Amino acid sequence: LIILTLGLAAYANGASENDLFLPLVVSPEPTPTPPGVELRGLWVSRFDWTSYGQAANPGKIDEIVQNAADAGFNAIFFQVRGTADAFYQSDLEPWAQRVSGGSLGQAPDPLWDPLAYMVERAHAAGLQVHAYINVYPVWGCSAPPPETVTPRPLYHQLNGRYGPSGGLQQLSDGTECLGGYRRGTPASIFLDDHLIAVGKDLVTRYDIDGIHLDHIRYGGSATSCDPVSAARYGADCFSDAGYGNWQRAQVNGTVRRFYEEVVPLKPGLWLSAAVWPIHQLNPAWGFSGRPQQGYIHYYQDSKAWLAGGYIDSISPMIYPGSGYNGCDANGDYIEDESSDYWLRSRWQTLVTDFQADNNGRYIIPGIGTGYCSFNEIAARIEMARQIGTAGHALFSYKDLLDNEYFDDLANGPYAETAVPPTIAWHP
C-alpha cells in the first residue's frame, strides 16, 4: 500500500494545523499471477485443414490459430507430412495433393507455404508449432503415385533401390497394404537417411518449436517379411525369437537418429512422438478382451525411448479412432467398451503406467475430442493433472470445432493461463 499525506495541499486551502488529516491510501495494480506450466497441445491433422480436390486456404490457418489461442492452448501439432508428401515447400518431397487441390507435386497457385504461414501466425498468438510427420507411410493403398512427379516420390525411390516393393513392409504373402498405408521398412538405412534429411530440412528452414513423430511403428504383428529385413537380419522373418526384438531396435534406431542428428540443429527443439495407448498389458489391470499392445503388435518400444533418453515426450493415443459412443437422456457419455474401449478408468490406468516409467521425460497423454459430452474431456484433463503429467494433447481440431468446445475449454480447464515446460536436459 502507498500512503500519501495531504497536509501540504490542505494548508494551501486554508486549513489550520489543529485540523485532523487522514492519510490517502492508494492501492497499486495487483501483481499478475504467473502462468502455470503445462503443455496444452492441439493436434491439427491434414484432414482438419484441407479437403480433397480443393485448394487449401490460408484463412483456415487463421481460424485454427484464433480458436486455439482463444481456448487457451499453447502448442499446435501441425501435420506437414502424410504419405511422404509435403504440406510445405520442399525440395525433398512433392507437394501434397491436398494443398493445391490438384495433383501430387502441383504447387498451390498463388504460391504460399502453409507451414511458414502457420509458424508466423501461431507465434504471433503465443503458440508453439510442432511439425507433425507420419514417419514410415510412403503412400496409401490406392494406385501408386506417378513416377514422373518432381521431387521423385519416395515410393519409387525405394523401388529403384530395392526392386518392386522391396523397400516396403510386407506380410509373408507379399501383402504391402497395412492399416491403410504402404509403409517403408524400418530396416532400410536408405529410408532412415531420407527421413533424417526431411527432419533437418524442417528444422533449418522453419522456426518450429518441435518435431512430432507419428506412425513410428510397424504396420502389424505379422510384419515385416521384406527382403531388406531378411538380408540385414540374416534369416527369414520370424525365424527365431530374436526377430521381434531386432525389429524394435530398427524403430528405436530411427527415433535415436532424429534425437542425435536433428534435435541439436536448433536449441530448445522438442522431439515428441504419438505412441500406441498400451505399451504392454498388465494382467493386474483386469482389462477385458485382447487389446493390441505397442510393444508386441507394432514393435514400438516407446518406454525404451524414455529410458534411453532419446525422446523428450511421448503422447499415448488413448482415444477412439472414430467409434465414439452417444450420450444418455441426461447428456452423459455412455461408457460402452464394446464400441469405445478407452473408458475413463482405463485412460487413468494407462497414463499412470507411462508416467511411472518416464525417466524424467514428459508424458503428454492424448485425449479424444469426439465425445458428445465435454465432461469427458474435462475429466481426463483433471486426471492428467492429478497424475502429474507435464500436460496433455487433444485430438483433434475438427471435432473440437464441430462440437463447439473451445469456449468450454476457455471457461473451464484452461481458465488460468499456462506455458509449456522447457526441455531442461537439452545442452
Structural features, described:
- With about 425 residues, the chain is α/β, with parallel strands linked by helices.
- It has a single domain, classed as Alpha-Beta Barrel (TIM Barrel), CATH 3.20.20.
- It is about 35% helix and about 15% strand.
- The strands form 4 sheets. It has a 9-stranded parallel beta sheet with strand order 13-12-11-10-6-5-4-15-14.
- The radius of gyration is 26 Å and the shape is globular.
- It starts with a strand and ends in an 8-residue tail after the last strand.
Features:
disordered N terminus; alpha/beta; 15 helices; 427 residues; TIM Barrel; 16 strands
Structural class: alpha/beta
CATH level-3 fold name = TIM Barrel
Mean pLDDT: 94
CATH class division = Alpha Beta
Report the radius of gyration as a whole number of Å.
26 Å
Summed up, the helix count is: 15
Fourth CATH level, the homologous superfamily: Glycosidases
Q: How large a portion of the residues is in β-strands, by DSSP E?
A: 5-15%
Largest sheet: spatial strand order: 13-12-11-10-6-5-4-15-14
Q: Report the end-to-end length measured between terminal Cα atoms.
A: 44 Å
Multimeric status of the protein? single chain
Biggest sheet descriptor? 9 strands, parallel
Shape: globular
Q: How many distinct domains? A: 1
CATH architecture: Alpha-Beta Barrel
Number of strands: 16
Contiguous low-pLDDT stretches (5 residues minimum) are 1-13, 15-27
- How much helicity do the residues have? 25-40%
